[in-house]
Design a protein that fits this description.
The protein has three domains: about 10-80, Phosphorylase Kinase, domain 1 (2-Layer Sandwich); about 85-245, Transferase(Phosphotransferase), domain 1, CATH 1.10.510; about 270-384. By secondary structure, the protein is an alpha+beta fold. A five-stranded antiparallel β-sheet has the order 1-2-3-5-4, covered by helices on one side. The chain has a three-stranded antiparallel β-sheet with strand order 6-8-9. It has helices at about 45-55, 85-90, 100-115, 180-195, 210-215, 225-245, 270-280, 285-310, 315-335, 355-375; strands at about 10-15, 25-30, 35-40, 65-70, 75-80, 85, 120, 130-135, 140, 145-150, 260, 265. The chain contains ten helices and twelve strands.
């Protein structure tokens, strides 16, 4: 099993595609052992890299069954992982505890150490390529962008990576190396902490902040120079967190969920949880957004009831209430992704900015048409 074979050493039965993509991963079952594997198509130029990957046996990386060439295509057969991606976990979680983030970062760095020791750079470390198995084991997956560092090159031959998580050098500024993966790890930590990219907002968690800042320095020389160096820094934060938790005496019978920030640790109350989950402006926890939200809500709560009160009849009061709701409240719900409904609309959930722009334009148009119809039906309503 040491070389790429033109004929498979094992025979498989294809079960079903795992995505809608052309040449996307396919779930297969090995005919003799009945084990499930994932069949993935890769560019032929990745042949040597995938063969190197096959030699690596590590609990935080998927095991590779074989690498073969079929009909001029390169295919990799790897273990089928039962679990969820980190993206799914982040989306369905209100917050991720600091201790959990540090633990998973250590697991992720273990996977990268194994890759880097063989000269491989992953180049696409992101939550979507990190899985947690049903047994709680972290796996770094998907090697479409994997490459080998070559000292004589100034830039990568093929520039790949995911915007937001990819390091600056992945866009042609320099050749990628192990430090490029560590940049992505820093971004992943920040997203796990506050669901934002570091360049937009940095986590103020005292046990994560410094790790993120150093890992995401623009100049690779100022980052951690190896996954082992970053691992040592994460272990230090892990020990500090454990020591801090041991000094905290919790009341018997009360479950305390600590949420760290730069100034204090506080328990998430039902009111705070309601604001963070459902009230636009409070869900991100960003001070400037919350300030604007408070000003806006005060304006609406003071202005709208006063206007309604001026109505002479009950029907006029009702029309004023509907008019104000459509004009001031409905846009907030539509454009702040209330209850994450944007995730269910293809254009608003598109990865390309152009498509998302079209989606929001249609959303604005729909709101204007709806408001126009309301005014037309009510013969101008209260604005007549």
């Amino acid at each position: 099993m040491g070389n790429v074979n033109n004929l498979k050493q094992f025979s498989y039965k294809e079960i079903e595609p795992l995505t809608d993509q052309i040449n996307g991963p396919i779930l297969v079952r090995e005919n003799d052992t009945k084990e499930f594997f994932v069949k993935k198509c890769y560019p032929l130029y990745l042949q040597d890299n995938l063969m190197t990957l096959q030699k690596i046996k590590h609990s935080n990386l998927p095991s590779i069954q074989e690498v073969v060439i079929e009909d001029g295509q390169l295919y990799l057969y790897e273990e089928f992982i039962h679990g969820k991606t980190l993206t799914e976990i982040i989306k369905t979680s209100e917050t991720l505890e600091t201790k959990m983030i540090l633990k998973r970062t250590l697991d992720l760095l273990e996977a990268l150490i194994a890759l880097h020791n063989e000269g491989l750079v992953h180049r696409d470390v992101k939550p979507g390529n990190i899985m947690l198995t049903n047994d709680g084991v972290l796996k770094l997956i998907d090697f479409d962008a994997v490459r080998v560092f070559e000292e004589e090159k100034e830039t990568d031959t093929v520039q790949l990576g995911t915007i937001g998580f990819a390091s600056p050098e992945q866009f042609g500024f320099a050749q990628t190396d192990a430090r490029s993966d560590l940049y992505s790890v820093g971004v992943v930590i920040n997203v796990c902490s506050i669901k934002e990219y570091p360049k937009k907002q940095l986590s103020f968690d005292p046990f994560l902040h410094d790790l993120i800042v150093k890992a995401t320095k623009l100049d690779p020389k100022n980052r951690y120079q190896s996954a082992m160096e970053m691992q040592a820094a994460v272990k230090e934060k892990w020990n500090q967190l454990n020591a801090a938790q041991q000094q905290t005496v919790e009341p018997v019978g009360i479950s305390k969920k600590a949420i760290d920030d730069s100034e204090q640790q506080h328990v998430k109350t039902p009111i705070r949880s309601f604001l963070g989950n459902y009230v636009p402006g409070f869900r991100t926890g960003q001070p400037w957004k919350m300030t604007l939200a408070i000003i806006y809500y005060v304006f609406v709560l003071i202005g709208l009831p006063g206007t309604i009160y001026e109505g002479r009849t009950m029907s006029e009061k009702l029309l004023v209430a509907l008019d104000g709701s459509i004009l001031f409240i409905l846009p907030v719900l539509l454009f702040t992704n209330f209850l994450n409904f944007h995730e269910k609309i293809p254009l608003l959930n598109a990865k390309k900015n152009v498509l998302r722009g079209i989606g929001y334009s249609l959303l604005v148009l729909s709101w204007l048409i709806y408001y126009g119809l309301f005014l037309f039906v009510t013969n101008g309503g209260v604005r007549k």
